[in-house]
Amino acid sequence: MATAQVGVVILGAGPAGLVLGNLLLDRGVDCVIIERRDRAAVEGRARAGFLAAHSVRVLTEHGLADGLLARGKTHATCLFRSDRGEFTLDYGTLGHGEPHTVYPQRELVRDLIAEYLRRGGEIRFGAEAGEVTEEGAAARVRVRGGADVTARYVAGCDGHRGTGRAALTARGTRTARRDHGVSWLAVLVAAPPSLAAVGYALHERGFAGHMARTDTVTRYYLQCPRGTDPADWNTDRIWTELATRLRTARFGPLRHGPVLEKTVVDLRSDVLDSPGAGRLWLAGDAAGLISPSAAKGANLAVLQAELLARALEAALVHGDGTGLARYAADSLPRVWRAHEFSHWMSGLLHGPAGTDDEARYGRRLQYARLESLRTSRAHQDFFAENYTGI
Ligand code: FAD
């Protein structure tokens, strides 16, 4: 049995689906969001924290930024550490002169859900989307354990393992992909940040990162071998390794606190050749997964949600399909630019393991890249433009 047809059914209540849903309601397009998990799980998932100026502008323009403007923190510097010392880049005064706003993804998701419901939107939590089929001028989404939904369009915002992507690739859409061959132990700690800035540490034992989240929560990353079990990393081991790689003996101690969460993230990237066709259009991780090395994923999700909202409104309200026809051309160049920078950043942060000549060559390139960033104003401007830009 199917429920009445809506304008757009959105799969997934992550940043992409929730921004899209809010923007569609704003434009008078009726929609429903299907989310496979319950509300508490969706609102409790910690992930991103760094929002580019473009994302903040989009959220502000559409009345979705009250929380982040009230509680987010502006960050405009980052620092790099290695055995050759430490240097800071004031990227907020370089390149286009744009800072980041640090605001935890789970708080953003909470704000977006509250606002979407306030605008009269419907979210079906605990409803997993299955098969997506097209029937003339409509599409049908099977919902496991619930009524099917029919809509004029389906927006697949259900992440890189979701139904939207699977349906598109099953029709022959190809994916360009790369496995960066590196994993991170991502640790969330209940302690204030230890550094005044984002910290990237290059070390022969592997990369370590420090990212503020709030005044009382800090994210740390430790490069680890593929296949690492987070259970093998007890609290002592985590702090000892962080101290070694962040060189606390030389630069000062870290602020300790209970470990709230530890997960392993494999650094992989991919982009679908085309983010949609016909009645099915994708945004966010569903359309392309980007490794977290340059903190771009949630920002690309916001960018694509904004473009897709405009295109769907034109198609549904004005009968004008040009926005959808142009969606790939409008979004992919910016997506690829973010991937190029993220890939470059991955090469900066991760030296090859081993002691053979090839590994030594790779590590020396890594240090030459770092030295260029430390000393060349042109390189610093390029870095800042790409680090903050979307
Ligand atoms: P998701 O957030 O994955 O949301 C998809 C939703 O779809 C989920 O709620 C899921 O439950 C639901 N779903 C899945 N399948 C189905 C189905 N079949 N039916 C219904 N619902 C379904 N990005 C940044 O910009 N800055 C950062 O600082 C940053 N840090 C990160 C740190 C880590 C450790 C990680 C892992 C990622 C980080 N990212 C960062 C990336 C960012 O979190 C993601 O790119 C972002 O969450 C993508 O949003 P999305 O809405 O496309 O997908």
Mean pLDDT: 95
User: Could you describe the largest sheet, including whether it forms a barrel?
Assistant: 8 strands, mixed
What small molecules accompany the polymer chains? flavin-adenine dinucleotide
* Proper CATH architecture of the domain at 6-71 and 103-177 and 269-344: 3-Layer(bba) Sandwich
List low-confidence stretches: none
**CATH topology heading of the domain at 6-71 and 103-177 and 269-344:** FAD/NAD(P)-binding domain
* Helix content estimate: 25-40%
CA radius of gyration: 21 Å
Strand content is 25-35%
Cα-to-Cα separation, first versus last residue = 42 Å
Large-scale geometry: globular
Which CATH class of the domain at 6-71 and 103-177 and 269-344 is shown?
Alpha Beta
Could you name the CATH homologous superfamily of the domain at 6-71 and 103-177 and 269-344? FAD/NAD(P)-binding domain
Number of strands: 19
**How many individual helices?**
12
Task: Kindly describe this structure.
The chain is of the alpha+beta class. It has a domain at 6-71 and 103-177 and 269-344: FAD/NAD(P)-binding domain. The chain has helices at residues 15-26, 39-44, 53-61, 66-71, 105-118, 163-170, 235-245, 248-251, 297-318, 322-349, 357-375, 377-388; strands at 2-11, 31-35, 50-51, 73-75, 78-82, 85-89, 100-102, 122-125, 128-135, 138-144, 148-156, 175-189, 198-201, 208-212, 218-224, 259-272, 276-277, 280-282, 288-289. The strands form three sheets. Strands 1, 2, 8, 9, 10, 11, 17 and 18 form an eight-stranded mixed beta sheet that branches. The protein starts with a strand and ends with a helix. Flavin-adenine dinucleotide binds next to helix 1, strand 2, strand 9 and helix 9.
